[in-house]
Design a protein that fits this description.
single chain; alpha+beta; 15 helices; Polyribonucleotide nucleotidyltransferase 1, chloroplastic isoform X2
Length: about 900
């Protein structure tokens, strides 16, 4: 590095690489390019200055621009975007659907390259775009990162976690990050390597207008206002279908009745991304929705274009660095014929290794011929004859004018020096040439890498029941893509809690988790938390399978599906849909129908192949066809309708006719896959596994729920401990769910809960009831656990009604009434064991009566032997004398006796 860089007495000032019009090459006589590191100083004419230029360029290993300045400390004159030259705030209202959104810039985030706030109702999104001053190393992808965060303060609350601040990005936020990222990438120009970051926050949320589609539009506007050289303005909208009417940007309440959830992003004239879920919607309806969304996006883009003309920043077009055309010719000459042969290898791993070997061979040949620079300072292609010139001044001497004693240098012609390329440029060009030859083979010959035709589906194999202890399992294989799907059933405790702005403290009873380990592509790599790609693919498969699940009332289980990709060569998310469907059937989940998923691709017959741009649609694409092709369109559903879809475009966009062709071809592909899935061997069992938990749902009166829970949950905990069930879930509407591992514990807990919540009805019969104690005036009988005496009255129990035609007995004593309570705590008087013969009388009108005269002729004596030890028939007191035939109605309770207590072996009846 230069300790005190200066030139001709003027200091050299180091500033970020070209960022605006004031820093263009024409305005900077002294400048170090980011990739060549070479001075472009025209004033340095002699050789000594060229030598000095060489030494300076070689000494810099980092990427800076250099300009001369008389006052280096004054940065404001060309620091466009600083507070001193920032434009005043500007806002515009844009019509969207049946309302307007408001876009404002210049008020918040003025130091960012682009910053906007977009408002819909009282939902406000704040989005910024910033980029690095120094470009990154060239690569085959645009260095873009997107971060979206929902501030809980936007809804007037805090995070539900222990730390009351937003932390790790939630899955819901990751999905919106992907929605923002996917339409932005196709609009970025190749050769721009400045790292770009999009940050988006929800500052206000009104609970009515969802923020996700708004965030896509805000990112597109911020990018258009920034210096990033993007090709076109993008915007996003949501489309709902309520009845037969399509709604643009529907509210949260409207979406509750919508048959479609479509999020679409595009430009003024093309569609870049769609993603959505529906309930078996036909293809023509989906196309209508896309058309409505495209019209809405077109209207937003026109308004944004006018906004950019007024307050947008100049684009950094001069920062774009592309490999030279000469390098493409060299790579094709060296590897063209071998590439054609390598691309015909059917299997993925051998083909990948052959391509890698061929790439190394190309780099080796170019290095031997001197085309690849070995100096780090030369990051791009430059003709450098100056490096081989003599250091001394050259002088041309005319014959006959040579002075004696003078030493002269004879004229020597300059040597031709080849172009110098960086190794990374060679790799980029090799990849582009590979993609070009792959596309050319498909377009011209109609053959793909594995020999299939454009409409042909790979070989499919499916089998179920691989894992004996799992509740349901399936292995789905399509070509070199394979998914191992496992289903686990459980109760609400297994449900996934959702903690975000839109879904506040809700629980998901069905979720699918997708994992993509590096071993599935034969590599060693990072294993840890799920990546954004894994979260996105899992959600797509989850939403695809959701419509076929039964309602909770019919199948009260929480369902978890795990899809582990064990092999991958394209369309692993759609393999998860197919494998997940089979695993659900194997677990005994009563699904509505079978569904399948397929990924569609596209290759345009462009001018470079001598074509006119006609699209060629590919069914069931490979990984290489996804990377080198122009589209990745995933469609899942049955043979009659679509349940989920996702489309990404790598070109400037597609039109509705192309999408229609892709949808119809995808429908044919799904039918073929469903037919192959029906041949699954072994087939799904379609019944609950013996290892799955048992769940019994019962309904009680809502006011009885507290009897089950008890004070502080003590009662429900005691039931769980006594019976051995796994869980008892109670709801405010009276629904009780019992989860158990075996039937016996389930029946025990069911009986206890039934007894606790029963309402005695005339005609009910209670068996095996326990005598708690005997008082001088009667017997305390527990007809159910904790049910001896009701709140204010008594129950009239009749034993005689259950006896076969007994003869009338003479009454020898006047009876006294006994009270039966339904409270949990019993406090009867101590039994006088010296008086064993007592009678039990209870009034059927619920009133407490202790008058013997009022019960005359309505009581019967009962002879008890060894009260509290021996069994005795239940005392009865019919409403009137005479034989009453027993009724057959039984209660739900079947209460076992406790050891050491007298048990009533007979039957009692409430009359």
């Amino acid at each position: 590095m230069l300790a005190n860089p200066s030139f001709h007495g003027r200091p050299l000032q180091f500033v970020p690489t070209v960022r605006n019009e004031l820093c263009r090459p024409s305005a900077c006589p002294l400048q170090l390019h980011s990739r060549s590191y070479q001075f472009l100083a025209s004033s340095l004419g002699d050789k000594r200055k060229r030598i000095r230029r060489r030494s300076i360029s070689r000494s810099f290993k980092t990427q800076f621009s250099v300009r001369a300045s008389a006052e280096p400390q004054d940065l404001s004159v060309w620091a466009v975007g600083s507070a001193g030259v920032q434009a005043s705030p500007f806002s515009v209202r844009i019509p969207v659907g049946d309302r307007h959104i408001t876009v404002e810039t210049g008020l918040i985030g003025r130091q960012a390259s682009g910053a906007v706030t977009v408002t819909d109702g009282e939902t406000i999104i704040y989005t910024t775009v910033c980029l690095a001053d120094v470009p990154s190393e060239p690569s085959d992808f645009f260095p873009l990162s997107v971060h979206y965060q929902e501030r809980f303060s936007a809804a007037g609350r805090t995070s539900g976690g222990f730390f009351k601040r937003e932390g790790r990005t939630k899955d819901h936020e990751v999905l919106i990050c992907r929605l923002i990222d996917r339409p932005l990438r196709p609009t970025m120009l190749k050769g721009f390597y400045h790292e770009t970051q999009v940050l988006s926050w929800v500052l206000s949320y009104d609970g009515l207008h969802p923020p996700d589609a708004l965030a896509v539009t805000a990112a597109g506007i911020a990018m258009a206002l920034s210096e990033v050289p993007s090709s076109e303005v993008i915007a996003g909208v949501r489309i709902g279908l309520i009845g037969d009417k399509f709604i643009v940007n529907p509210t949260i309440q409207e979406m509750e009745n919508s048959k479609l959830d479509l999020l679409l992003a595009g430009t003024n004239n093309a569609i870049l991304m769609i993603e959505g879920y529906c309930d078996f919607l036909p293809e023509d309806k989906l196309l209508e929705a896309v058309e409505v969304g495209q019209d809405a996006v077109r209207g937003i883009c026109k308004e944004v274009e006018a906004l950019v003309q007024k307050c947008g920043k100049p684009k950094m077009l001069d920062a774009i660095k592309l490999p030279p055309k000469e390098l493409y010719k060299l790579v094709e000459e060296i590897a063209g014929n071998e590439l054609v042969e390598v691309l015909q290898i059917k299997n993925k791993i051998p083909r990948r290794k052959a391509l890698s070997s061929l790439e190394e061979n190309v780099i080796s040949i170019l290095s031997e011929k001197g085309y690849i620079s070995t100096m780090e300072a030369f990051g791009s292609t430059e003709t450098l004859p100056d490096l081989l010139e003599e250091d001394e001044d050259e002088e041309v001497v005319v014959d006959g004018e040579v002075d004696e004693g003078d030493v002269h240098i004879k004229p020597v012609a300059r040597k031709t020096v080849p172009l110098l390329f960086s190794e990374v440029d060679v790799k980029l060009v090799f990849k582009e040439v590979t993609s070009k030859l792959l596309r050319k083979r498909i377009v011209e010959r109609g053959k793909r890498s594995d020999g299939r035709t454009p409409q042909e589906i790979r070989v499919i194999d499916a089998r179920c029941g691989l894992l004996p202890r799992a509740h349901g399992s399936a292995l789905f294989t399509r070509g070199e893509t394979q998914s191992l799907a496992v289903v686990t059933l459980g109760d609400k405790q297994m449900a996934q809690k959702i903690d975000n702005l839109v879904d506040d403290d809700e629980y998901k009873r069905f979720y699918l988790q997708y994992s993509f380990p590096p071993s599935c592509v034969g590599e060693a790599g990072r294993v840890g938390a799920p990546s954004r790609r894994e979260i996105g693919h899992g959600m797509l498969a989850e939403r695809a399978l959701g419509p076929i699940l039964p309602p909770e009332d019919d199948f009260p289980y929480t369902v978890r599906v795990e899809s582990t990709i064990t092999e991958s060569n394209g369309s692993s998310s759609m393999a998860s849909v197919c494998g997940g469907c089979l695993a659900l059937q194997d677990a005994g989940v009563p699904v509505k129908c079978a569904i399948a998923g397929i990924a569609m691709g596209m290759v345009l017959d462009t001018k470079e192949f001598g074509g006119d741009g006609t699209p060629l649609i590919l069914s069931d694409i490979l990984g290489s066809e996804d990377a080198s092709g122009d589209m990745d369109f995933k469609v899942a559903g049955s043979d009659v309708g679509i349940t989920a879809f996702q489309m990404d475009i790598k070109v400037g966009g597609i039109t509705l006719p192309i999408m229609k062709q892709a949808l119809l071809q995808a429908k044919d592909g799904r039918k073929h896959i469903l037919a192959e899935m029906s041949k699954c061997l072994p087939p799904p069992s379609r019944k609950l596994s013996k290892h799955a938990p048992l769940i019994h749902v019962m309904k009680v009166k809502p006011e009885k729920i507290n009897l089950i829970i008890g004070s502080g949950g003590k009662k429900v905990k005691s039931i769980i401990e006594e019976t051995g069930v796994e869980a008892i879930e109670t709801q405010d509407d009276g629904v009780v769910k019992i989860t158990a591992k075996d039937l016996s514990s389930l029946e025990k807990s069911k009986a206890i809960i039934s007894s606790l919540t029963m309402v005695p009805v005339v005609g009910d019969i209670y068996r095996n009831c326990e005598i708690k104690s005997i008082a001088p005036y009667g017997v305390f009988v527990e007809i159910a656990p904790g049910r001896e005496i009701n709140d204010k009255g008594q129950l009239r129990l009749s034993r005689r009604a259950l006896l076969p035609d007994p003869e009338p007995e003479k009454q020898s004593a006047k009876p006294r009434s006994a009270s039966l309570s339904n409270d949990n705590v019993v406090s009867p008087k101590t039994l006088d064991k010296g008086k064993p013969k007592k009678a039990l009388t209870v009034s059927n009108d619920g009133s407490a009566s202790r008058s013997a005269e009022s019960l005359k002729d309505k009581t019967f004596p009962m002879k008890l032997s060894s009260p509290g030890k021996e069994a005795a028939k239940r005392l009865v007191s019919p409403e009137k004398d005479g034989p009453d035939k027993p009724q057959t109605k039984k209660s739900d309770g079947n209460i076992s006796s406790k050891s050491g207590n007298a048990v009533v072996n007979g039957e009692a009846k409430v009359v």
